[in-house]
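Anyone have tokens for Peptidase C14 caspase domain-containing protein? Sequence:
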Amino acid sequence: MAHNPERWALLIGIDFYFAAEAGEAKTRSLKFHHLTGCVRDVRGIEKHLQSIGVCTTRITKLTASKGESESKPKEDPRSLPTHSNIIRELDRITRSASPGDLIYIHYSGHGVRRNVLASAGTSGEGGDEFSGAAFAPTDVMIGGAYLTGYHLGDMVKQMVEQKKLRVTLTLDCCFSGRGLRRSESYTVRTPPGAVDNSVLPSDEQADRAIAAITGPTSASDPKTRNAMFKPCWLSNPVGCTVLTACQFNQAAGEDRFADAGGKHGVLTYWMLNILQKCSGGPTPSFSRVKEHVEVKIKSMRPRLAQSPVLHGDGDYAFFGKELVIERPACHVLSVYDDCVDLDIGRAQGAAEGAIYEIYPEGCDIDSPNATPIEAHIIELDGFSDFRSTARLEHPDHPMHRGATIKPGCRAMLQTWALESDTFVQWNPPEGRPDLAGFEDVLKTYIEKTPGLYLNSDFASEPTFTISVHPQHKTFEIYENGKRLARLPRIVSKDVEQQAESLAYALRRVARFRDIKRLGNDDGCNPLEPGSFLFQLHGESGEHLRKDTDGVYRVVDGQSVTISFKLLNSRNRESDLDSVDVAFFNLNPSWGIQKLYPGPGQSVHKTHEKSTERFSIQMSIPQRTSAEDPEEIEDTIRAYVYAGDQPPSWDELVLEDLPVEDTLIPLDFRIDAIKTQEPQKKPAMQRNAGVNGRSTKEPRWGVLDIKIRTIPRTSSPS
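Reply: yep, here.
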């Protein structure tokens, strides 16, 4: 029986900061001024958590409020947000919660830079949001310890990796060390001045306290004097989501909001704004919350450099266990008999057998009570790669009576299909009675994907083979005889979950392969690759050279810049003056990630005299087996379109496969991307032009850059 997760929360808000009494020695190099909106942040979050059913006894608050006395806050010492109290409550929650429970941690207060990692290669403002950063507890100016990013990261890592909890962490503070001029309305949550490198006995004791809880391999590493100088796990978390108020070189603040009764942290206010708007309906994903906050901040203060940052699992429902898959809505172009034409086709990954849901006129695609009509793609258009025909299933069902489907109605992918029949072979091991009946269960899950079959009778040549490692007793998947790397470890002992997890991985790998194979030779009217310049550059803008196999080579952690240019008409034969382009990364974790343009934009229009550039940092993902190669290869792909109706390529996106089956999102929700709008006119008419071809066919193509990333101990040359 599935565990119904409990929800726990630790809410930290610091308006009051103790100051040294007159005549006492100064202990810190920085002075933290009082804040006004942090405790109000905590109260707002507490109210929201209670409204969604979080038990009051599982919500813990540590707050420091300004009281009548200038020398002490309202709260009693045990309820104050000191380093020891915060760690005590984090440890208590970790011990009390059960595997699978959901944990929410909120911090509103001052943040500061402590030190810059040498590996950052910069001074003054290097590192990231966590490494070298610290949170300022209420007593930090009278000898109390900083709560470093490393301390917090170690505690959260223990929650996630050892206790198998899913953690949400919201940090409404900043770590820049910059000070901005304070106004009557807007206050920056960082003290003026530089970083604070002071080390007090309390800081050293804090390191030892963390080591006593999380083990000697963390903060007590003898090679490092203090935990605050070490890279923080929160910079790249797994099984955890972190939302910060700003980037590491920016300042976060609190502002006065008329409907809130005073000041709020800007991040917290707009976060609560979208959560309350969605009350009673589906909970928005972390990505949706982050985008909403970012848009609202820009609208209230256009010149304010405060951009929230999301780390970790952004595709889950906020403080939930449900994966939220956001897909673009396509549209009905024409209706006839029991079929519809859709503005989605081969170029965007559509295949015969794929299942879409059609939303009739007046049916809100975002409503949980919507009753769409299922449709199966039966034909891909022979003249356009952006069009297909789908047959409506059960349109006369009583639930659909009175429903009207007409051009412009939206449709959304529910189940993709493979381009051609793909067979999987299961090689059962000897002496494994625990796998009795496994093949039948596996077949049920595998064949939920149209075009994917378990080859039970060995009548067809299999593409994939599932075996059990003779020594490690782990499941392995082979493609045409070659072992596939970086697939989830199947650690579950339950036969049904093992089969479901393997089928999930196989579906994703097969879909990934289909999309990666789709190239310029498959299009009805392809663009000429020679019309474009698609290159990779180093951190200083220098053009990088390819190896003899045509692959660029970089080292782990290296930043690179991608450039794309439509060549001048004198240097090409085509008549293009502009194209629409979108960039994706096909990565070694079997994911397809959209790189550029960002959320809210399907494609970016570029003209022949302009060059598009964006930067990415290459990294090697965690290995799931000792046999996985250390080197990895990414494919940066540009989807280029020339025509009147730029398509969305967002349906190609695939989430990365996780490192083990306990992190596979078997419980998920599909949401429509809100920015997609119906086309103003059909991409082409069924009887337009000669032989069904429109008078002006769109053209498209793909360009690939392959990048091999090697460990830093190796040489890229």
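DSSP finds eight helices and 34 strands in the chain.
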